[in-house]
């Protein structure tokens, strides 16, 4: 497809939500700052629009956060929009390569050469021209991730204040990481501010004064995280076809706007036995991506958990056709299915692969919510991780987690206190940590409680909104 034939920019309609409700859940000591921030917002942003720009309306952590941060900002009286850029498969192949390289991985093994540059620039030019028609001088543009970095210079040229946010990174950069930095740096350096999720991700060669650290966050009221009692969890998992149970809770859930809804789509299961209410469960939820290491989770589970505890493992992720900016998902899932099929029947019967319906984002979210609450242990054994929203989500639900000791995960989990951290290459250690949480119920419960308290103070949307507000106020004043 010629880039000029790309469809129009996609405006994601997310409505507005009252940010005041966050006052009900934030830690006591954080309440006053939130109150003051909300009071100051309308005057500060009068006459300006804040644009969030990314490359997918669903699937992955960025979309997840925008689903609630944008409505809260609107509810705070800030004219905030969310626009999704368009691309074609070649463009997303290049941007996924950059994404993998920024994590130190080769991805499809392709180069970031003049050919990649031409593909990237051609699509970027079309999106830039379309955005420039809509953005007014004085507006603030928050661009997310490598897919949007090329927009920095054209939008600065339109007299907007431009912030680029990088949601990915590694603690120890290799040559692949550096070449991705080199590819993006001319664009990124031009931004008024650059945000990273954690200090270790900051690139070489950026103006330190423009660099800011803001950790991601979750929304406690979203379908992904709102409180579900045991019956509701059973009802949702039965309706989604994930667990066989009597389902007294039915298939009801609550949408982000408060409306009641009924779950209608089912997960596609790859399994040779069914999960029942008695089945102890280890769960990992993530996109079908090698860097989430579903293969390593399966191997570690078979070799180092199965011999010690009676748990089953469930690997859950999105229906692969629906995440448009992630061309590798379907391939990874098929490989995983083949790996599962190659296992001994006894092991196979203890492992379940669930692709969750994406027809309705909120329905997908509430299924993830129920699964995380249903799990005795939640794992996130990524080989690289920008932040790992799934970790914060599980912690908020007071689940004991076993997660990789890298990236933003180390900011979330204090090892041995609010969860367990492991070296993702050390499968015996991974298995031992999971088994320990099954054996030592008191420790598991204590870690779950600590985990929830930590998220309450550090990783709710209120803290995130206030940090954006402060940064934008400083840029406007400057
Ligand atoms: N997620 C989801 N449905 C799925 C798989 C993942 O809603 O089937 C969500 C998950 O709950 C989390 C986000 O996608 O909110 C993934 O964010 P994370 O930071 O963990 O990883 P990313 O995908 O951004 O690398």
Count of helix runs: 16
Radius of gyration over alpha carbons? 22 Å
Largest sheet: 7 strands, mixed
In CATH, the architecture of the largest domain is 3-Layer(aba) Sandwich
> What name does CATH use for the topology of the largest domain?
Rossmann fold
Number of domains: 2
Provide the CATH superfamily of the largest domain: Glycogen Phosphorylase B
Low-confidence stretches: none
Q: From the helix content, strand content and strand pairing, which structural class follows?
A: alpha/beta
Cofactors, ions and other ligands in the entry: uridine-5'-diphosphate
**Count of beta strands:** 16
Percent helix range: 40-55%
Strand order of the largest sheet: 1-3-2-4-5-6-7
- Report how far apart the termini are: 42 Å
Highlighted features:
single chain, 478 residues, alpha/beta, Rossmann fold, 2 domains, seven-stranded mixed β-sheet, 16 helices, 16 strands, globular, binds uridine-5'-diphosphate
Explain the overall architecture.
40% of the residues lie in helices and 15% in strands. The mean pLDDT is 95. It has helices spanning 31-44, 61-75, 89-102, 114-132, 152-156, 175-188, 230-239, 294-304, 329-341, 345-348, 361-374, 389-396, 409-412, 427-439, 441-458, 461-477; strands at 10-11, 49-54, 79-84, 140-144, 161-166, 193-196, 211-213, 252-254, 260-262, 268-270, 281-285, 312-318, 351-356, 377-380, 401-404, 420-422. The protein has 478 residues and is α/β, with parallel strands linked by helices. 53% of the residues are buried. The protein contains 16 helices and 16 strands. Helix 2 (61-75) links the parallel strand 2 and strand 3 (79-84). The chain folds into two domains: 3-217 and 460-477, Rossmann fold; 230-458, Glycogen Phosphorylase B (Rossmann fold, 3-Layer(aba) Sandwich), CATH 3.40.50. The strands form three sheets. The protein has a seven-stranded mixed β-sheet. Strands 10-13-12-11-14-15-16 form a seven-stranded mixed β-sheet, with helices on both faces. The protein is globular. The site of uridine-5'-diphosphate (UDP) has 20 residues, from helix 2, strand 12, helix 11 and helix 12. Residues 60-61, 64, 224, 285-287, 316-318, 356, 364-365, 368, 386-390, 393 line the site of uridine-5'-diphosphate.
């Amino acid at each position: 497809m010629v880039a000029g034939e790309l469809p129009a920019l996609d405006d994601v309609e997310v409505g507005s939500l009252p940010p005041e409700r966050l006052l009900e859940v934030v830690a006591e000591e954080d309440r006053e700052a939130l109150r003051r921030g909300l009071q100051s917002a309308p005057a500060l942003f009068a006459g300006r629009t804040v644009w969030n720009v990314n490359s997918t309306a669903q699937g992955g952590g960025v979309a997840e956060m925008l689903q609630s941060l944008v409505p809260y900002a609107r509810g705070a009286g800030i004219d905030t929009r969310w626009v999704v850029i368009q691309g074609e498969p070649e463009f997303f192949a290049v941007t996924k390569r950059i994404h993998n390289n920024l994590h130190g991985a080769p991805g499809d093994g392709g180069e970031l050469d003049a050919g990649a540059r031409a593909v990237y620039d051609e699509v970027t030019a079309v999106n830039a021209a379309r955005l420039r028609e809509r953005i007014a001088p004085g507006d603030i543009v928050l661009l997310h991730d490598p897919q949007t970095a090329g927009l920095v210079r054209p939008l600065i040229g339109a007299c907007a204040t431009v912030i680029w946010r990088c949601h990915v990174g590694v603690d120890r950069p290799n040559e692949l990481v550096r070449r991705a930095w080199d590819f993006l740096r001319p664009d990124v350096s031009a931004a008024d501010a650059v945000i990273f999720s954690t200090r270790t991700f900051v690139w070489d060669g950026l103006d330190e004064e423009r660099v800011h650290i803001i950790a991601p966050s979750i929304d406690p009221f979203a379908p992904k995280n709102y409180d579900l009692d045991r019956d509701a969890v059973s009802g949702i998992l039965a309706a989604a076809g994930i667990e066989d149970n009597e389902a007294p809770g039915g298939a009801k859930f609550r949408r982000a706007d408060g409306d009641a809804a009924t779950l209608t789509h089912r997960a596609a299961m790859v399994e040779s036995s069914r999960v029942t209410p008695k089945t102890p469960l280890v769960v990992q939820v993530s996109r079908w991506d090698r860097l989430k290491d579903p293969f390593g989770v399966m191997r570690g589970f078979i070799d180092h958990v199965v011999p010690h505890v009676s748990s089953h493992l469930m690997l859950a992720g999105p229906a692969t056709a629906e995440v448009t900016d992630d061309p590798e998902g379907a391939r990874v899932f098929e490989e995983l299915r083949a790996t599962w099929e190659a296992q001994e029947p006894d092991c196979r019967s203890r492992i379940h692969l669930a692709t969750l319906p994406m027809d309705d984002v909120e329905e997908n979210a509430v299924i993830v919510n129920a699964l995380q609450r249903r799990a005795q242990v939640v794992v996130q054994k990524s080989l690289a991780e920008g932040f790992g929203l799934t970790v914060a989500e599980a912690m908020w639900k007071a689940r004991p987690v076993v997660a990789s000791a890298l990236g933003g995960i180390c900011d979330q989990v204090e090892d041995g206190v609010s969860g367990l951290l492991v070296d993702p290459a050390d499968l015996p250690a991974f298995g031992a940590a999971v088994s320990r949480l099954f054996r030592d119920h008191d420790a598991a419960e204590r870690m779950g409680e600590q985990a929830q308290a930590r998220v309450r103070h550090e990783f709710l949307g209120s803290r995130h909104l206030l940090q954006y507000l402060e940064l934008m106020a400083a840029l406007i004043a400057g």
